[in-house]
Amino acid sequence: MTDNGASGHAFLAGGGELANLIQAFEWTQTPLGSIETWSPILRTSVSIALRSPVPIVMLWGEQGIMLYNDAYSGFAGARHPQLLGSPVLQGWPEVADFNDHVMKVVFGSGETLAFRDQELSLYRSGRPDQAFMNLDYSPIIDESGTPVAVIAIVVETTAKVAAEAWLASERDRMRQMFEQAPGFMALLDGPEHVFDLTNAAYMQLIGHRNVIGMPVRKALPEIEGQGFFELLDGVYSTGQPFVGRGLTAYIQRSPGAAREERFLDLIYQPVRDPSGKVVGIFVEGADVTEGIVAREDLRASKEQFELFAEAMPNHVWTADADGMLDWFNSRVFEYSGLSFAALDGAGWSSMVHPDDMTAAAERWSESLGTGKAYETEFRLRRHDGTYRWHLARAVGLPDAQGRVGRWIGTNTDIDDQKKISQQLLESEARLSLAIGAGQLAVWDYDIAGGRVSSSAALNRLFGFPADVDPSPEDYFSRYAPGEAERLAQVGRDTMLSGGSELEAEVRVLWPDATEKWLLIRAQLSDAGRRAIGVVIDTTERKQAEQELAQNELRFRMSQQAAGIASLELDIATGTVIGSDHFWEIWGLPKLERVNIGLLENLVLPEFGEVRSTQQTREAGTAVHSVEYRIRRPDNGQIRWLSRHIEFLHDETGKPIKMFGIMQDITDRQEAQARQELLTHELEHRIKNILAMVSAIASQTLRNTDLETAAANFSERLAAVSTAHDVMARTRWTSAGLSEVVGSAMSPFPKDQISISGPDVALTPKKALTLALAVNELGTNAMKYGAFSQDTGMVQIDWELRDSEQGYELVWTWRESGGPSVTAPARRGFGRFLVERVFAADFGGTVVVDYQAGGVVCTLVAPMPELSQHGKVA
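The structure assignment produced for this chain is given below.
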């Protein structure tokens, strides 16, 4: 029961529970002595403190004997009532140094002290309790002016400090959300539109100028006259928000630079105070320049395609995914004499010869169903009613989902080639008739005697007068250079093979430069000492064949160029002419022609023996189909190219031109390489797993009892399994760099590993490669490096650095405290994985340094995508 009256001593009356405790306390055991002997100033001070609702404690005398009120007893917690009458340094031993300082300053010097939100660790409930409080200390002065005690007012602020910390964290979180918002944001204050806040996207838009605290007209003077200042004034004065889409703004994005055209989606939202008055404007928007430019590029690309198609002599057309034709170049209208309305959709079929329609429609339907290239021959009716043969070819253009969304096709007039082929057949028929009718030259060559039985027909074929009798040497002199030797070799080969029939076609040059092609057929007899045969003039057929071969070669290459890049190389001069797509895949601006040396310099050195050379081109021995890698000069990218060539020969058989087609096959090669890598990695990983389990078992069983070793061994095997599960997941989903490294390192000794660096989201390809590289390095460290000794350490850290392309990742594996290491004598698959695959998949470089103190592996890789998509690599 509380006696507020504290009977017996009037100064304690109304003092609450502490008054009763003070009344009952045995003060004679303290320096204060019996309560009946207390001085008036002590009684008065106690009386004042007891009646105060604020926690007050008095530290009396040099020992600081504690006297306090009910409010302070609540603050003291479980330390009450033991604190009453005890010296302060003993009552609060955990803060004895703090209270000793207070006694020296306030009691010893008569000064005052004040602390705000002072943090102290107090044992108020049997365990340390971090508390914050406002403390005010003043001396109590006696009649002589000497300090006799210290009075302290204690107000606990722990709840307030926690609330303020929470509010601060919330402000930071909101500020971070504002800062990291993908769109640009700014807060403008007052009628002058003074910048109060901007986020990173806004700073990037304006070139990272320091505009905080500046009016918008002063901060962004270059947009004067573009209407934006007036829009801000209107929103501020009317309180009506403004929304704009695709607005053009000319902004100076770096000091001294010219103004840059940007396209913006923009919102000006008025900010009001509690009374509803507009006090500022919130600016939010997005830079949509890339999207608008992309749409414009698409439009320009369409115009460029149509311009190119209009320049082509072929019929060029396009069709939608359902096969309905929806665009034609002028050649189609000029040839057919029909309007667009008559040809649109399925109307083009009216041009096709009725006999060819069924086959053409079936092939078109097959291509629409499979997405494969369309190719057929049919006759098309010309505006004058004449039908001419055409080769139709079309390729599908895939959309974003990989399905054919459009078709581009050409119709090439091959009527003349058809006629040439027919003429060739007719010529061969006439030749057969001529031979059957005896229109040929017969000859008898006595090889041993060196005599030829000449005839007028034979002389006529070799360019001699009909009445002369040429010698074998005379006939041989009419052969083109090298032909006599070739014919003799054919004879020797026939004899060596045991044959008796000889046939060869040779080129003959008359004195007046007339060129003739003669087919020589002979029957060898008398052990090769005599030959009897015929000579047929095949000049007309040979010329027709050469013309047909050249036309067919050009035709085939032009058709392949409809979907693939084409080239033509003059072997003598080294001059290359290419299609538009040819320059694109080589990363060069469109040129009229270029020397082959420029292209050869772009081929990576390791493919020098694969590509053609001047020697192999002149000899006609260059490999027809090859694949090699180049470095594009426009962006530095490494690309795989596939090249197929065919030679055009002159009349002597010498290669004079090289026609070819090319295709960028980088995606196909990368997919194939990745498949091979996974196959090799599967084999290698099985070996590594066995080596790792063996190393873990060896280390686990070292210097320990069997039961403990078994438990540790099971835990480490479980960690290996967990790491492989995470690695498998990263093939198909993005994963944080920290998660990939941490999971890959989980099988290894945790107390020997240090990992640090900002979290960066990796694509599945990069995450898998990183996990494989870390696992490889860790396995080698377990076998030979830092993990093979208890004193070894592995430190893994990384950072993002600014570079010209955006961000650059620097990732380092560093071993120390292990055995001395040296570079391995052989390069195995594991080293290939770390040095080549790791670097290639990150598009950077990897250096493995076998330092004496431990292996150091460093990856430096550009991460340009971070500047576009946030921290996702």
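Interim note for the steering committee: The chain has 27 helices and 33 strands. The first strand starts at residue 56 and ends at 60.
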